[in-house]
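Dimethylargininase, Knoellia remsis. Tokens?
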Amino acid sequence: MTRRTALVRRPGPRLAEGLVTHLDRSPIDVDLAMQQWESYAAALRSAGWHLVEVPEADDCPDAVFVEDAVVVAGDLAVLTNPGAAERKPEVDAVEAVVRDLGYRVARIEDPGTLDGGDVLKTGDTAYVGLGGRTNGAGVQQLAGHLASVGLRTQAVTVERALHLKSAVTALPDGTVIGWDPVVDWPQAFPAYLSMPEEGGAHVVDLGDGVLLMAASAPKSADIVRSSGYDVVTVDIGEFEKLEGCVTCLSVRCRG
Ligand SMILES: NC(=O)NCCC[C@H](N)C(=O)O
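Tokens:
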């Protein structure tokens, strides 16, 4: 396993048909989305990440949101069982890639469902969103797998957002940040900081005190900067129309 390796998956030609649940559908410019994806990938590379591309899945419009297909922790990769039937075929190609990288592989199985976007790891805890895509059996199975790498699992209700990480993510110091209108249970977290923009709830820890955020959340980026972090921003507007955010476009493997 290489330190600072990230999995990514290029958008396919049917991206515009991706699922929307909490938003009204708006037209997607697939060429622009491709440019935005290249900029996102370039931002990771500039921060020292080696990118491994999962083969494209042209028949799966949402495959670009690769985070939902696998949860990586320590030497373990847990292949998910996505809660939306349309997304289940995304997982097999991810399995081949994580096996090549040397991960020990586990799997969420029926009746359990789980999307990687529902799993927020911070410190020794994995908070898991229990809601639209992830069910109780999925959380239970994940808890068993993550215990083997020393993580405890805590379920958190998610009703107003697609995934837990659509509503909250965590700063490197463990502070959970969120956009209040979609956070069901802020008391679940030991430290919680409210952000003024929906896209401001999402950070990707690039390491060395650098965080990646969406260009749609400039006020939130300023708040994060004033907390002592460097912030790099990328425009992912076409993916935001499909309820994507900066976290879901990659899987960071920290070796
Ligand atoms: N982890 C994430 O936030 N994934 C975004 C998935 C968006 C996709 N359109 C879906 O509904 O599954």
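Residues 18-19, 21, 62, 65, 67-68, 84, 87, 117, 162-163, 165-166, 242-245, 248 surround citrulline (CB under 6 Å).
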